[in-house]
Design brief:
alpha+beta, 7-stranded mixed β-sheet, 6-stranded mixed β-sheet
């Protein structure tokens, strides 16, 4: 789940290609479709691992019904075709040969469509959609422990119930049971459409997306049939699970001028970890966006879940399987937005570093940014934000600094918990995402974790780069993981600078503040 700048382009576009004119390719590249929540983007990567070109289009989101976050599957497909065509044409005009089409996508966003016509039969339910939470709550006593034990995911999200919620419609249920409907996440829908749809479309999903769905039995490597049966979802309507570097058919998107083998299909957060080069156990990345997603490479063996964390398949390739521990915070970039738009203590988001540095280091102001409750590792929806340490001398800058430090503390809690659970020491934190541009946040992160924090040289393209590397290894652009990872540009490193005594004091104050926010209940005054 990542945001893109709409229409961003890495370099000026070469002249458009002339229809029917043959062009001799001078080099090879990987074309990646990076399909996010708010935009879809095509990125072209050269054999040196650099992003050569990109093009993005915005995607609509509808929130007209309480809890609903809907998208249009046809719009996602058409705009994805548009960006692929645009970049492919520019590559052809520049003599750039394309070896394969890779794909990374938002996870747990659900599409339901007619297998004969290829038309969607319901709006897309975004991963953010919460309408199915009542169904989750009704089945909690019966299924919560079994679901977590079997899938490796916390019983806390409504997305595993999206299909069951859709199939409450009697006609859709009848059609699903009759085998007339197919269902999958965004990458499954797009692969099926790109490879022919009703005319022989490939119906597959990668391990990284199946394992993130809450519907997959990770111990037995199959769909969780017992749970699916209990909630009324026919297993036959779900795709075949395939390795990330497996065969996803041949894209034959005539309107995009694309006919390429599809491989390197991977969920967005796992793709970002791969794109950082986090292939060794103990590697951990944090994507700072609206919230922060933390993924920890737990190695080749499934890890028992705990502390509110998920354990899911990172990726399955010819080199083997890696599992990841994953957790997220609800408020990171949105916390900075709150400082600007809500409190008015920060004039603009891009002034966060300058304002942080103007604060009194010893002010003692600290913000627990639980503005939407706590996600992992606390999972407390009743928690509320807390601003402590105020006195008559407190300034706006102190509040900004306290909030940035609070964001860093929430990520530190996640990373330290993951290290304990996996039994693997954390040696470096790899970061990307829009808020990773903040030097002061990353320095605070390094200080609280006491490990180096490395910002990607190209944070905007890390997620797409992971899919490109997997596809490039599979198709021979690189001869293995080592040579593929050697193409990564060096990012900036933030080394720990805080004395251990001060770190312990600040971390202790943070834990005390968190304890005061948990289980908070705000009465409804009428």
């Amino acid at each position: 789940m990542h945001n893109h700048r709409h229409g961003h382009r890495v370099r000026p576009a070469p002249p458009p290609s002339l229809p029917g004119r043959p062009i001799i390719a001078t080099s090879t590249s990987i074309l990646v479709l990076d399909e996010g929540t708010t935009s879809t983007r095509a990125v072209l990567f050269g054999s040196d691992g650099r992003a050569l070109d990109s093009e993005a289009r915005p995607l609509s989101i509808e929130t007209k019904v309480s809890g609903a976050v809907e998208q249009d599957a046809t719009e996602i497909y058409e705009r994805s075709v548009d960006v692929l065509r645009t970049v492919a044409e520019r590559a052809a005009a520049g003599g750039q040969g394309i070896t394969a089409l890779a794909m990374t996508a938002q996870r747990t966003t659900t599409v339901l469509w007619d297998r004969t016509t290829g038309e969607p039969v319901a709006p897309v339910y975004s991963w953010q959609d919460t309408r199915a939470i009542p169904m989750l709550d009704d089945l909690r006593e019966q299924w919560a422990q079994a679901v977590t034990r079997t899938t490796g995911l916390q019983y806390a999200s409504g997305s595993p119930f999206h299909l069951a919620w859709m199939l409450r419609d009697p006609e859709l249920r009848r059609r699903a049971e009759a085998g007339e409907l197919l269902a999958g996440t965004i990458e499954t829908w797009l692969v099926w459409k790109f490879t022919g749809g009703p005319d022989g479309g490939v119906f597959r999903t990668p391990w990284s997306c199946a394992g993130s769905s809450g519907l997959y039995d990770s111990a037995r490597d199959r769909w969780y049939e017992e749970f699916l049966s209990a909630v009324g979802v026919p297993v036959a309507m779900l795709p075949e699970v395939t390795a990330e570097d497996g065969d996803y058919g041949m894209a034959r998107v005539a309107s995009a001028g694309v006919e390429l083998p599809i491989t390197g299909v991977v969920g967005d957060q796992q793709s970002a970890l791969y794109g950082h080069g986090g292939l060794a156990p103990g590697a951990v990345k944090c994507t700072h966006g609206t919230g922060s997603f933390v993924d920890f490479n737990a190695g080749p063996h499934n890890v028992a879940t705990g502390y509110g964390l998920d354990c899911r398949t990172g990726w399955q390739t010819r080199a083997g399987r890696s599992y990841v521990l994953e957790g997220g915070t609800s408020v990171s970039g949105s916390g900075i937005d709150w400082l600007v738009e809500g409190l008015g203590v920060l004039e603009r988001a891009d002034l966060v570093d300058a304002t942080y540095r103007a604060a009194d280091r010893e002010s003692g102001v600290l913000c627990v940014p639980a503005l939407a409750g706590f996600a992992a590792p606390h999972w407390d929806g009743q928690a509320r934000g807390l601003l402590v340490g105020l006195n008559r001398g407190t300034t706006k800058a102190d509040v900004v600094r306290g909030t940035v430090d609070g964001i860093a503390h929430t990520v530190t809690d996640l990373v330290e918990t993951m290290g304990r659970l996996a039994g693997v020491p954390v040696t470096t934190l790899l970061v990307d995402g829009g808020l990773s541009r903040s030097d002061t946040l990353l320095q605070a992160q390094a200080d609280f974790l006491q490990v180096p924090v490395v910002r990607a040289a190209d944070p905007e393209f890390v997620t797409a780069r992971g899919a490109a590397l997997i596809a490039g290894i599979a198709t021979g652009v690189w001869d293995g993981e080592e040579s593929a990872l050697a193409t990564a540009a060096e990012g900036r490193t933030f080394e720990p600078m805080m004395a251990e005594t001060e770190r312990r004091i600040r971390r202790g104050a943070w834990q005390d503040a968190v304890d005061r926010t948990l289980g908070w209940h705000t009465p409804a005054y009428r």
